Amino acid sequence: MLKVAIDVMGGDNGMTPIIEGAVHALNEREFHAILVGETEKIKPYIPSNLSDRVSYVEACDVFDMEESATDVLKRKDSSIYKAIDLVREKQADAIVSAGHSGATMSLSTLRIGRLKGVLRPAIATLMPTTKNGVYTLVLDVGANVDCKPEHLFQFAIMGEAYVRNVMGVKRPKVGLLSNGEEPGKGNEATKEAHELLTKIDAFIGNVEGNNIFDGSVNVVVCDGFVGNIMLKASEGIAESITHIIKENVKRSPIAIAGAALMKKVFRILKKQIDYAEYGGAPLIGINGCSIVSHGKSNSKAIKNAIFQALKFASSNINQNIEEEIGRFAK
Question: Which pLDDT score is estimated for 40?
Answer without folding.
Answer: 93
